[in-house]
Structure formats: structure tokens, C-alpha cells
């Protein structure tokens, strides 16, 4: 963690490393019990460069902590049935503990329908109805990785959430909705804004904690935030000048009490959260194994 | 719908009746197809008077539209296993289309654990993880009745939600969280407040639509709302003066554009929504029957 005036700048790398160290210890112990490494299989369709880059980063992270990562690539033209068959085969393969389906999928495939083919016990992104519902019911098992990463950062920096006003800019199923649920479970007051919000500044300026995932560079300027607010920038946007988030980092960091940079903020912690989910799924399958024996 | 000055006062009875009329038509048609009436079974534990009254009202409503309603009563001392066994038997009883477990349950029973015994296809209160998750994923099947009732009232009165600021006072799994999800799916900006919210008035006074379910009589006064706000009062509190909600109805109705009374507002529509859910469950089981034949 670096300091600028009194503003804390989050090191996503450091937080991710702490999580990975813990995961690595867990992997060593479970590898002995299973007599094999935990294994995750990723399904990827088509030739999206960013998807392939992200998959490569995640596989590398798996390798670092001792998780076996394999991938199954499909051509752009794969049918729903073909993809679903392969996922279903993997559901019943007791050598595979977790399944990722890399998004986005080509337009002819309904992502929701594809994801719902994953067995909830192997759903390491937490997108199936069963896992989402367990989150609503405050009985979480596998929680989506990006929202979980935001919570890790807030926890790591001991940001109090109870009674705080958290504003989330994003109402997607992948980020905004699960994040709102996680913050409500911490008894924060939660506002969810998005592209249809009419007066965004009126909402963001109330935030004790502002979490933004709009994908709009420079959306958040210093006029839009409260002094000493906590600013978590989830967006990753490619621009001519390089990777950026939603926040005008240079000016906002002077007013915020804590801020995540992009890159190097939420991103690395998201990958670490994915590793944690793989271990949760592996541990759960190990328990089932014991019960059945 | 009555009028006070220009304030619309919602008639929950009228809206409920419209829904019931539609359900009745559906029941007649499906009774012919099934060659029996749709059937719902309610499980009730102990001697809670309010629970018994509510159950009586719901059973009466079922009877009115032609749904068979039976109940299984248990003593306060019933164990989790005994109750779970009976629920599981009913899950596989193809004469029963829907299951209610009347809340609250005695303290020795974990409500979440009991509810999760209900098969999602018969979960007519929409509390199981599978149904909650389908709601998060904007692929709803059986949605909790009270939030659904609020949406019916807003739809009936053509209240625009897209871009509106909806404030919900309640962050429970039964009301606040599913309601927030439903409003987000309509592209409202949504704020969720509750007992830990530090400056409630600052939040409520922003609401284009205020939905309150705190159970605190006179919590919402005219100073706390914006002129011409829509006020939906979900609370039902027994006081010495009778049943009341959270809203100081007399003064707030002068400032609001639309308001629900208590009693006679959300309550009757909630029961009508339960009937709709029974029909959804029955229709789904009929489809499965056709597939298996």
C-alpha cells in the first residue's frame, strides 16, 4: 500500500498475494488427501483476444498455487447442445472440481442457459441460480469473483460498512446485484445506480463507499464524490493511452481516503477470488467423497 | 380507487380481485386438463394466532378461486427431521402442486433449512435458493409474494420505474432484497435502507417511489417524503388503535401522489400473488406431466 498525502492507494497485487498464499497452503493439504491436484476446466468459445488473455492469466495463477488448469476450446460455430454435452460430461467427471465458462459467448448462445448447465457444486463463478440464491439467502457457497474481490479489498482495509452508504454503479448479474447483496448483508445502506440513473452526481456524492463498474473512462470526477470517500474502481477499459477504469484517478485520489488503481486494483484480487472458489468447490467435493465412502 | 384531493388511494381489494378473476379462469381450465383441482398444502407449526389467521385468509382465497387447500398442523415440539420428512413426502406427492411453510417457525427450527426442503417446483413462496437465484438472474419462476404484490400495484397504476429513484426500507430476504432486484430489473435507481441507516430522512426524501416495510408505526411523516411521491406501505402492525403500517397516513396522503392504506393495500394483493404462484407451479407440473407421458 502506497500513500499520496493521506490517501491510501490499494495494492491489489499485495492483497491477491496474501489470498494466494493461503490458497497454496490449502492446495498442498488437499492434494495429499485427494492424492491428486485440484483441477479446474475452462470452456472457451471462439477467438476473443481479451477472453484468451484473461484465461491465460487465470491459468497461470492456478499453476502458481498448485491447481491443475485445463481448457476446452470450441470454434465460434459450436451449438448449444454440443457445449452443454461437454459441460455435463465434466459435471460428472470426479477428477474435475471446478468449471469456468469464459464470457462473453457468441450471440447465438444464451449465456444464462449455458451457465445453468454447470452443476452448482462446480460453479466456481457462482453464476448458477442455486449459488445466486444462496447468496440472497445469506447462506453463500460460491460467490461471483468480482464482487467477492471488492469485499476482500474493503475487509483488508477495515472499511466499516455497517450504517455506511455504499453506492454501486452497475446493476448487472455479474457485478452490481451480487455486490449489493453482499453489502446489505454487512448492514450498509446500499444504492444501485446505472445507465438509466437520471442524476448520477446526486447519488455518488452521498457515497461513503463508491464502487463503480460502468466502463466509462473519467465518469467519476472529484466533483462527484464526497471528501474522504472510499473509491473502488471495478471497470477495465482499453483506451489509446492504455488500460483505465471509470475514475479520473489523478484528481479523485486527492479527495478520496482510499482508492483502487486500474490496473493493479480489483483485477488481481478477482483472480485470487477465483482460486479461492476452486478450493471451496474442491473441499466440498472432498466432503461428499467422505460421506459416500 | 378513491381520490383525496389529487392523491390516489390504492384499493388493494380491487387489484386483488382482478388477479383472482384471472386465476379463477386459469383454475377452471387446468382443472379440466388435470381432472382434479390444483392443490396446495400448508405446513404450520405451533399455535401462533396471527399465522393461523393469515392461513385462514389464504385458504379462503384458494377456495374462492377453486384451488384445494389443505393444511398439516404440527405441535410446537416437532423436530426438524419430522417436519422435513413430511415436506419431502409432499414434494413427491403428484396430487399436491404447491407447498407453504408458515413463518415464523419456533426458535429450535432453522427456517432457512426447513424452507430449503421444499422442491423448487412447488415452492410457491419463492424462498428456496433456486427460485431466489432465478430472480437474481432475471429469469423468474416463483417470486416471493409480497414483493410481487408491490410490483402488481405499481404496474396497475402505471407508475414509471425506469430511471425513477425507488427507496426500499427493509433489507430482509422475504421483502427488501427480492423487491430491490425486481425494481433493478425495471431499471430503477434503487436504494435500500433499514434499521442501521444513519440518516433515513436524507434517503427517503429522494424517493420517487418509497416502499416501506419496517414495522414501525408513524416512521414515515410528511417531512420525510418528496412532494408527489408514490408511497407503498408494506408493514402490518397491531396497535391498540387497530392495524396500521409505517406511514402516518393522514398527513402523508396530502403530499403523496399515490398511497396504499393499511389495511386494504398491499395485504390483499399479497394473497392474490400467492394464488398466482400456485397456478404457475401447477402449470409447470402439468408441462412436466406431458413431457413424461
Q: Would you mind describing this structure in some detail?
A:
- The structure is a homodimer of 293-residue chains.
- Chain A is an alpha/beta fold and 293 residues long.
- Chain A folds into two domains: 36-119, Leucine Dehydrogenase, chain A, domain 1 (Rossmann fold); 144-267, 3-Layer(aba) Sandwich (Rossmann fold), CATH 3.40.50.720.
- Chain A contains ten helices and twelve strands.
- Chain A has helices spanning 12-34, 49-65, 80-91, 111-115, 129-136, 145-156, 176-185, 200-204, 249-252, 266-292; strands at residues 2-4, 7-9, 39-45, 68-74, 98-101, 165-169, 189-193, 209-212, 230-233, 237-239, 242-244, 258-259.
- In chain A, the strands form three sheets. Chain A has a seven-stranded mixed β-sheet.
- In chain A, strand 6 (165-169), helix 7 and strand 7 form a beta-alpha-beta unit.
- In chain A, helix 6 packs across helix 7 and helix 6 packs across helix 10.
- The radius of gyration of chain A is 19 Å and the shape is globular.
- The mean pLDDT of chain A is 95.
- The interface between A and B is large, with 39 and 39 residues.
Kindly summarize this structure in a few lines:
Two copies of one chain form a homodimer. Chain A has 293 residues and is α/β, with parallel strands linked by helices.
Amino acid at each position: 500500500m502506497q500513500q499520496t498525502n493521506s490517501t491510501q492507494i490499494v495494492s491489489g497485487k499485495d492483497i491477491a498475494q496474501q489470498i494466494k498464499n493461503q490458497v497454496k497452503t490449502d492446495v498442498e493439504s488437499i492434494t495429499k488427501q485427494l492424492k491428486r491436484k485440484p483441477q479446474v476446466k475452462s470452456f472457451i468459445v471462439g477467438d476473443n483476444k481479451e477472453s484468451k488473455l484473461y484465461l491465460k492469466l487465470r491459468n497461470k495463477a492456478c499453476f502458481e498455487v498448485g491447481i491443475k488448469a485445463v481448457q476446452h476450446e470450441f470454434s465460434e460455430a459450436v451449438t448449444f447442445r454440443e457445449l452443454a454435452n461437454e459441460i455435463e460430461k465434466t459435471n460428472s467427471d470426479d477428477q474435475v472440481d471446478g468449471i469456468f465458462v469464459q464470457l462473453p459467448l457468441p450471440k447465438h448462445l444464451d449465456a444464462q442457459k449455458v451457465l445453468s448447465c454447470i452443476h452448482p457444486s462446480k460453479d466456481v463463478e457462482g453464476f448458477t441460480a442455486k449459488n445466486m440464491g444462496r447468496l440472497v439467502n445469506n447462506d453463500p457457497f460460491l460467490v461471483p469473483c468480482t464482487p467477492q474481490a471488492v469485499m476482500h479489498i474493503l475487509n483488508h482495509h477495515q472499511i466499516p460498512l455497517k450504517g455506511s452508504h455504499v453506492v454501486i454503479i452497475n446493476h448487472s448479474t455479474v457485478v452490481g446485484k451480487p455486490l449489493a447483496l453482499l453489502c446489505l448483508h454487512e448492514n450498509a445502506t446500499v444504492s444501485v445506480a446505472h445507465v438509466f440513473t437520471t442524476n448520477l452526481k446526486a447519488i455518488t456524492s452521498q457515497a461513503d463507499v463508491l464502487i463503480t463498474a460502468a466502463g466509462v473512462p473519467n465518469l467519476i470526477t472529484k466533483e462527484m464524490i464526497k471528501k474522504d470517500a472510499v473509491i473502488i474502481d471495478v471497470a477495465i477499459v482499453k483506451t489509446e493511452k492504455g488500460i483505465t477504469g471509470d475514475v479520473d484517478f489523478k484528481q479523485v485520489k486527492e479527495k478520496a481516503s482510499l482508492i483502487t488503481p486500474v490496473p493493479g486494483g480489483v483485477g488481481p484480487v478477482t483472480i485470487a477470488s477465483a482460486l479461492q472458489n476452486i478450493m471451496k468447490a474442491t473441499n466440498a467435493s472432498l466432503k461428499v467423497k467422505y460421506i459416500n465412502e
